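ok so for the tutorial part 2 we go from a plain amino acid sequence to predicted structure tokens. step 1 is just haveing the sequence, like this:
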Amino acid sequence: MNRAIVSIVALLVLLAGCSSLTGGPAETPTPTPTDTPTPTDAPTPTQTPTDTPTATPTPTPGGAEELAPGVTSERIENPVALIDAHQRGLLADGFVVNQTLTSTYNGTVSNRLNLTLTAGPGGEVAYMNGSSSGFDFEGDESVIVNSVWVNTTHQYNRHIESGSTTYDLQKRLYPAEYFVWFGSLQRDIQLAGTDHEVTSVESGDGLDYITLTATIDRVGNDGVTDTVSTLVVDENGIIRSADVRVDYGEGQTYHTTYEVVQLGAAAPERAAWVDAVPPSASLQLELDVFGFNESSIELVHLYGDAVPEGAIVTVISNGTLYETTLEEPFGDDRRYLWVATDGTLRATAEPPATDATQALGREVTVEVHAPDGGELFTTSIGRR
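step 2 — the prediction. this is what the tokens look like for a chain of 384 residues:
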């Protein structure tokens, strides 16, 4: 599918897959069109209030007092221990996290993503909702909303862009740790962890809170500080907030904030939009247009499930909409879409004779929908 704003898509590659401690899965299971998974809701766990354990400072081998897992009175000594404590602490009783990512270009905000992640105890049921706004080269703003709801067996995705809503349904692919972080924050803390030095320690709510700051030469390795990272960590190793700013020069910056807004959260309820997810959303396939001339459009099946029998193919050319229904599944090679002289749209395995077709316009829109209405493919293309 063509996208007007590549940078927004890069930010939102998110919601379909991003950094986690264990990394994303190597391969996505591919359900068949006749084996649509049956959604199964996980029961909502009953939350049992628990006392927050208080860490006991212990000396480290170097002699510095340990204020939190992996953190001494001087700096972060063991980033992996800190990250592990943070993930375990959040997942133990559930959590709510807010995160923002903002990019500027020539000193002006070009992209902004606001994200809320909610997970119940153990991360068995979770909900991720993100809204991204950005501008294309013509200065037009676009807003994309992505939502993900998961239970113990399945993952539901909703994508809203330009007034169009599409869905995806598949078996759950990601471990609970996936929902603790978004983007590169976890990686940044791990790789630059030991650069964070303790700047203050304060007490409140029966806990000690350690503020750590790092100033880093992250861009260009030119000896010039370009990145400032600030973390607030409680004595149990939970990173209560993080703020990372990267200056690439010439008005180009990247800024992310991360805040734990709630420790201890019930499993999020099943999202209302889940009921609107069509069965065809479980199909995993890829189509593309490889050729387009005055006579026909070459629609290619690249991989995955077959487009099911009864799927509806539409072509908009010269302001006219043409439509046809596939009489058999399309899961091999290619189909040529062309408008016959009688004005009907055809989809054939072989290209048509030029004297059998009506001329297509220089710009066309192609869409493929499953019999239940689920969108399988859409694109707008032009030719000289």
